[in-house]
Amino acid sequence: MAQPVFYYDLSSPYSYLAAERVDDVLPVRPEWRPIAFGVIVQRVGKVPWSFAEDRSADFEEIARRASERGLPPVRYPEGWPVQTYSIVALRAALAVDDQDDRRAVTRELYRTAFADGRHLADPETVLAEVERAGLDRAAIADAIGSPEIKERLRAQTDAALSRGVTGVPTVAVGEELFWGDDRLDAAAAAGRRR
User: Is residue 85 within 8 Å of residue 12, measured between CB atoms?
Assistant: First the structure.
């Protein structure tokens, strides 16, 4: 089977939940590909659930899933999602080419946002998590502001949108797209059929 792709954005608690298990659920470990969901929302005119006036059902569902999976209680950074959206964190994850290192950095960033309830909009917080994941803080700090990484994030987001990705997390298995933490098992079944 061709390698699946795991599309995610670091502002998404559902992506956080998926990131904690996607490698174990799919029959082939996916390529982790960060994208700017905020850009996709603007382009397709979508209003995400996190912007709704009453978000209690989603908050309860996320809390339930985290508890069932043995994750710490989910805490949201103050001002989430609008004031905490971070292109810097996405660029930091994208600047890590090695997939195992990208997984490690991404998971540290997710835990900072949704277990510790801290902002990822602060570059120093992002770089501290890069360092905690065992990577070179200075190298990632340089990469975050580089035109190459900025362009790569734009290109990956555009490519995801062209492919039909309109939400995160999404797993692509061949031409099929599975949107949502609750669709990982369906993505795994599709992978086993290939």
Answer: no
- Say how many C-beta atoms besides its own lie within 10 A of residue 133's C-beta: 20
Q: State how far the Cα of 127 lies from the Cα of 170, in Å rounded to an integer.
A: 26
Q: Hey, what's the torsion of the CAs at 159, 165, 169, 174, to 10 degrees?
A: -80
User: DSSP state, 117?
Assistant: -
Q: Could you tell me if 29 and 193 are in contact, meaning their C-beta atoms sit under 8 angstroms apart?
A: no
Helix (H) or strand (E) holding 57: helix 56-68
What's the pLDDT tens digit per position in 4-59? 999 999 999 999 999 999 999 999 999 999 999 999 999 988 878 888 888 999 99
Can you tell me the distance from the alpha carbon of 75 to that of 16, in angstroms, rounded to the nearest whole number?
12
In one-letter notation, the amino acid at residue 172 is: A
Find residue 6's DSSP bridge partners: 32, 171
